[in-house]
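To whoever picks this up:

The parser on our side crashed when reading a file containing two proteins. I've narrowed it down to the boundary between the first structure block and the second sequence. Both blocks are reproduced below exactly, byte for byte. First block:
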Amino acid sequence: MNTLEEPVSETAEPPPRRPRSLVAALLVSLRPRQWTKNLLIFAGLLFTLDQRQDAGHVMRAVGAFVIFSLLSSCVYLINDVVNRERDRAHPKKRLRPIAAGELSAPAAVTAACILGAISLTAAFILSGRFGSIALIYFTMTVGYSFYFKHIVILDVLVLASGFVLRAIAGAVVIPVGISAWLILCTMMLALFLALSKRKAELLASLESGSTGSRRILTEYTGPMLDQMIVIVTSACLMSYALYTLESPAAYKHHYLMATIPFVLYGIFRYLYLAHRHDIGESPDAVLLEDRPTLVNLVLFGIATGLIVSHQLQRIIDAFNR
């Protein structure tokens, strides 16, 4: 039974609509739906519940999430300004406010400068190390908009590195130690999402008969991307399985292995949606619109929190008395 609630088709021709106001156009250009990617900031908090933490750590993690969301929106504005001419030839991206002429390039650049200045200043105020990571993330993603996205293989590696920097930033800002295994898992999962996105973009371009807006797609083939996806999927699952055995939370017990099925289901569900519902281009849509994926993520978070904080062991001990 299909439990996906009528995913929004990004290929269908949208109905005529009134032009957006300047404020609405700016808000849409900030892409708040994609702020879900910054939830990785909380990975350091979740996987270190066995260490001493307080409410201040939670507030710092929330602050880091807000800062990275503003910083990523700054990059989205820059990206849309740089690509506005190519976006106008794309069936979906032509509807973006800057490409559609609803938000002028000077206004977008001004907003990007303000957001960038505010977010980077706040990042260094929160923590010097966190600010340094935020600056690296900003520089790398802006570099992606201008240069890296045109280089085959390096384009997906840079995309994946952005996710890794989010996870590292979330650990640095608390601050707590973070397992190298968790960084590896994040990298493999991010590569999986990036390669799946490229595969969806390639299929969409072949269907429309044009790759004009994304020249890098001509460097990829379907079989090549399928092979890469198989490799990183296997590496992701194996690295997470090893993490559940080697992480500090697993030293006293191996209950963390019970979260492996959640990871398996999440990856397989994403592959299913990408192949059957053509939403591989929008990881944020999967998280926000697919109920099984959202439920799986919530259950994974609850289970991980109980295990890492050793609450599950206390529950089992109480039950056995």
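<<boundary where parser fails>>
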Amino acid sequence: MANILPFKGIRYNPEKITDFSKVITPPYDVISDDERENYYQLHPNSIIRLILGKDLPGDNDSTNKYTRAADFFGSWRNDEVLIQETEPAIYVYAQEFTLENKKYTRKGIISLVKLEDFKTGRIYPHEHTLAKPKEDRLKLMQSCDANFSQVFAFFEDNDCKVSGILNNKGGPNTGIPPEIDFTDIYGVRNILWPIRDKEILRELMSLMEQKPLFIADGHHRYETALFYRDYVKGLNQSAKDANDNSHSPPDYLMMMSVPMNDPGLIILPTHRLVKNINNIKAETIIDSLNEVFEVKDMGQDCRTESLMHELSKNINEHAFILYIGEEEKRFYSLKVRDKAVLHKIFEDEFSEWKSIDTGILHGFILDKILGLKAENTSKSENIKYLQGVEDAVTLVNEDKYQLAFFLNPTRIEQIRDIAIKRHKMPPKATYFYPKLMTGMVLRHIS
């Protein structure tokens, strides 16, 4: 079961930090080098100095960006730039944003969650992870003994009981002013209310006790927390210790959990660009696609609005838009015509992928037609992932890429259905928007 707990969060002191937008940043893994430098210049107490430090000349095993992060973390607490709650709380975190001229609010709870192994527990991933980011995050945790950002998960709330608490007992409808309220660089309003009422906390813990959790963002940080738990306990524990049911702080991780039916739980599509395909011929690609897809020529001039409208008409089908560059420069609409043929094509290793658009793209089009093996696409230099339609078309027109594939977003229930079977999705199958900001709440593990 996925146990949640309140905790004594560490937060920026409003008496010393008057503008939270200058110290709170997006997650470390979406920040470019230029953006990192901007955050460094914006404020001396920016969370960037903890989550994404700089490598400096002369760094070694005892002095480096991780030890500097630990020094900042310690000095900021000593100087009361960061202050710890005097009593445990669970935090309601809301984000208000506009997308395609429509306003949304996404609400969830930040709490501690009992770590569980992916193979046996009721916390389910949907992504493969890479070794290098986990090594980086582990060194940071070992130096600082802290969670600086929350892993993002979602859960089923069919009876809306948790949503009811978020809306009526721990959010804007309570009449209690938030303790953090600012608009970030993306125009997203970020709001935080601590819940300290013991009765409400008990109700939340009871409601969440049996709920599986599905990781949306933060797979590397979750796996790092598992490594850190074992690191702290020691690799050479006795069998008695290893089977001890008692729990210590490293057994828990800071997590943001959002109801699956929250109207603000938005997933954006991530499109694909492809290059370095030898002997590429448009007619050969189209002929191969005709085996499975109904292919419609959309011409050479396809505006973003038209392209996305064409995709949205087939939101419940398996459909793509293909843009072929070089001399062709034509758009094609692809819609699966014969699912039976498609299912026969998929090998057992990727059998679950036949039910999702990204899986069909990677497991059939990229693998079988273009020769980019599906098991290697997460590390392939031949594929670029991006959200912008116009940016993708421009890169193809500039001959930096040969092909572009445009997709509909993955649906939330598709993530749940694949994850609960303990299968993984193709790389970049999801892009949850907006990203959770880092620095809303911190946690010292010990």
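After patching the parser it read the second block fine. Residues 219-233 form the longest helix (15 residues). DSSP finds 14 helices and 21 strands in the chain.
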